[in-house]
Amino acid sequence: MKTQILIAALFFTGLVTAQQKKDSLKVNSIETVNIKKQVFKKQGDRLVYDVAASPIAKGTNTFNLLKQTPMISSIDGKTLKILGKSDAVIYINNKKTNMDSEALIEMLKSTPSEDIQKIEVITVPGSEFQVESKEGVINIVMKKNKNNGYNGTMKMQNEQAYYNNPNAGGSFNFRQGKWSGNSNFRMGSWTDRQKYTLSNGDSTFRNDSYGYNDDPNKNLGGGFNVDYEISKNQSLGLSYNMRYNKSFNSILDMTNYQNGILMDRTVNNEDAQTRNHSFNLNYEIKTDSLGSKLTSNVSYLWFNRDKVSFNESFPLYIDKDKKEEDQAKYSALRQSVPQIINNYAANIDYLKKTSKGATWLMGISYNHTNTDNDTRQDRLENNEFVIDTKQTNHFIYKENILGLYINYERKLTEKLSGKVGARYEMTRSNGEILEKTSFERNYNNILPYLNLNYAVNSDHNLSYTFSSRVRRPRFWELNPSRTYFTPNNYTQNNPFVLAAKFYNQELNYMYKNAFYANLSFNMVEDAAASDLLPLQGTSTKPKRDEDGKIMYDEHGNMIMETTRFLRYIRTNYGKNRELSLTLGMNKSWFKDIWTTNYSVNLGYVTYSGGVWEDPTSQLGEYETEELEPYIVDVKNYNMSATLNNTIRLSSKKDWFLGVNYFFGSKVAMEGGTIGVRQSVDISLKKIIGDWTILAEANDLFNQGYYRVNGIQPNGKYNNITNFNYPRLISIGVTYNFGNQKLKKAREMKSANDAVKSRT
C-alpha cells in the first residue's frame, strides 16, 4: 500500500495531528518500496539459504535442492561436499540424522522440497557438533506448521548406466493432537561396474594388470520416528532405522602381465551381507519462556557385515627354461571377513538463553564401542585348504570416549557478534589380535572454537572462525584383513593407525547476500592418507613343494624364492597444510527465470613425511621382507569449478531445465596425482499438480575417469585408472499426497551419531 493512501486514511479518522499533517508533506512524494526477501545470507557462524523464498524450490526433492544450495556440491549423486572439499554431516532441525550414509541420501531424495523452510551451511562447526577432521555441517530446518493430518510421498525411479538399476521408496508423516510421527522405506537393486588398469614397478621391472569388477546389490531400508508431547514443555521420542544390503556374486577379474609378458589371470568371487539397526530414545524439557531447554538421549547401534571370498590364480605362461615342477601353478585362497559392531551411547545437553540475548550451551556425552572382527584365511596346498596363520586374525577392539563441551554466544555490539567454546574428549581404547599382539591408545584432547562475525552494513559481512578436531580411523580400517586384486597386489587394513589432529581456520566475506569469498587454512598433524598409500617391496621365503614342505638343494641348503608385492595401506605419514580460496555466487536473473549457483575453488596443498616400515607385516619362519621407503613430499596448486544453472521454461512454473558443469584440475595427493575430471549434467523437470516427473542425464560425455599417477624419488611408480561408467540416464516419478503443510515429527539427535560415520 502506498504511503499516500495510509496518510489519507489517518486524516479521515481524525487521528492525524497538526504536526503529523506537517510531516506528511515531507513524505508525500515517497514511492512505493517493494522489499524482496533475502534468499542467501550470513547469520552468525552459518550461511542461510531461505528455501521458501527461492524460485527453484518447488517440485523437487531435498537432495536436488541441496545440490543447488550455495557452497554445496555433489559430483557422483551419492555424496555431498562443502566448498568442494569438506565432507558434509547432515543435521535436521539442529539434530544429527540417525541413519547410515546411503540410507540418508535415499531419505533426502524422497523428502519433498516443500517441507523445507531453510538450509544452513556451517563450514566450520562449533564445539557442540559431533564432527571430525574438517567436516562441515548442513542443517535442514523443516517448516513448522501444526495442522493435524497426514501426508506422504511415493517415488519410483529407473537408472540406466552400464546396467539397469530400478528403485522405489516412500515416506509417510502424521500429526494428531500430542502424537506425531514419520516413517520411510526404500528398496532397490543396482550393479556397480568398474574397469581397472593397474601399473607399477621401476626402470627394471613392470607389472600391469587389466580387469573389471561387477558388484550386484540389493537394498532394503527404512525407519520410523514417533514423538509424544507429554506437556507443553516436555516431549518424549523414539526412533528406529535399519538397512539391509545383499551383494552376492561380486566378481573381480584381472589379467596380469610382467615386463609385457602375459603371466596369469586372477578371479575373485565375493558374497557379502550388511545389516544395520539403530535405536534412540530422546527426552526434552523446556525450562523457561526464553527458549532454554534440557535434552537427553540414549542410543544403541548394531552393525554386522559378513563377507566371504574365493580368490583363484590361473597361470598362463610357461617358461621353456624351467622344469615342470618349477613352473607357476594354480593357486587359490578363501577368506571370511565378518565384522560386528556394538555401540552404546548417551548424552545430555543444556541450552540456556539469558534475557540479555546471550546463549550458553553445555553438554556431556559418552560412547562405548566394541568391535569383533574374526578373519579367517585358508590357502590351497596339495589340493586341500589349510589355514594361513599369518592372515587369520581375531581382532577385538574396544573404545570409550567421554566428551564435555561448552559454548557461549552473544551479540557484542550492534554490528559485532561472537561465539566461543571448547570441547574436551578423553579417549580410552585397546585392541588385541588374539594370541598375537595387543595395544592401548589413551589420549586426551582439548578442542577450542572461536567465531567472530562483523556486519559492516547491509551489503557487507565479514567473519572469522577457528576450530580444532580429531579424526579417528574408521572401524573397518582397523580390521587387519586384506582385499586381493592379485596374490601380490592387495589392500591392507591397519589396526595401528593413529588419530590425526586438525586445526581449521576460515575467513568469510559476503557481498549483498549473493556473492561470497571464503579463505581457509587447514593444518593436520599425524596425518593419515586420504586414500591408500602404495607400498612396494620384495618378500623372500623358503620354496615349498605341493605338500607344503620346504625344498632343499643338493647341498642341503634351503631353496629361497623372492616375489614382489604392492600393498595399498592406510597409515600415518606426517603432516599436511592446505590453503584454499573459494569464490561463489548465488543469484537469479530476469525476474527469477534463470537461477545461477557458481563457485570456483583455488587451492595450494603441501604433504610431507614418509613411511619407512609396514606395521602390519607378519613374517613367518625364515621369511624376510624389504620395503621400499615411501616418501611424501608434495606441493601442488589446483583448481575446481562448479556451474549450476536452473532455467524456468514456462510462466506457470511447471517446466524447468537444469544444466550443470563441473571441472577439476590435476591435484596431487599423498598417493599420487589425480588427473583432470569434469562432467556435464542435464535435467528436465515437469510439475503436474502433486506429480513431478524428472529426467536426468549425468556425466553426459562419460568423462568421469579416476586416474592416479604416482612416482617416488627412487623411480618406483604406481599408476591406477578406474572407470566406473559414470554416464547414466534416469527417469523418476514422484507423487505427493495428503496435507503438504503438515509439520513433521520432532527430529531427534542420537547419542551415537559420531560413531555411525565410522562404520
Automatic annotation (TrEMBL):
Pfam family, one: OMP_b-brl_3
GO MF term set: siderophore uptake transmembrane transporter activity
Phylogenetic placement of the source organism: Bacteria, Pseudomonadati, Bacteroidota, Flavobacteriia, Flavobacteriales
Keywords: Cell outer membrane, Membrane, Receptor, Signal, Transmembrane, Transmembrane beta strand, Transport
GO cellular component terms, semicolon-separated: cell outer membrane
Gene3D superfamilies for the chain: TonB-dependent receptor, beta-barrel domain
Organism expressing this protein natively: Chryseobacterium ureilyticum
Protein name (record): Outer membrane receptor proteins, mostly Fe transport
Cross-referenced InterPro entries: Beta-barrel_TonB_sf (IPR036942), OMP_b-brl_3 (IPR041700), TonB-dep_rcpt-like (IPR039426)
